[in-house]
Here is the input.
Amino acid sequence: AYKALIMNTVSGGTTGAFSTDVNIYAGMDKLTVGGSVEGTVSVRLGKESRGLSSDTYFIDDSVTTFKADKSSATFWVAGNENKDNTIIGGMTENYLYGGGASADDLQGSVLAKDTFYFGTGDGIDEVSAGVDTKDTIALWNIADANIANVKVSVDTDKNTVSVSLSDSSTLNITDANAISALKNGLTFTSASQTAYTYDSESKTLVKKA
Here is the structure.
């Protein structure tokens, strides 16, 4: 049987503490992860509990913020596809996905190896923290044949990078290290896991040497 943490949302919001001893969370708008959580944690925000595997945690529709910056666990986190999510990864390794056409804020860590998932149909998302050269932008549904259609633009005034896809879905990388990471080896991967980097001269993605 699954253990549950059920809370009543109050004015101003409710924060719950995430624990691997609990599988079902409901009635709060934010979950925080303490430093004692270790191993690999797989979380789906806004997903029902039916058919839930024992290593995945059900977070109901009320939760839009998942904060794990104090933990050294490896996190696989997918946001609620119907709401704007803020997903903050841990200090070791993170695989973060906004979850759909909502406006999502994905935050990695400079201490961690971060993979940020983005593709057509994902709307306007943002990576606002934790970007460096060991990280990856996973263009999860972009075929190699369509990589040329991925537009990467640099705004030196705002120190931001934008990745735009054929359906106008856009990933805005606003972390202070965005341009430096892009020009020094930030990895992009296609649906087939082929690795690419940004070429400053052609201003396109090219296969990684």
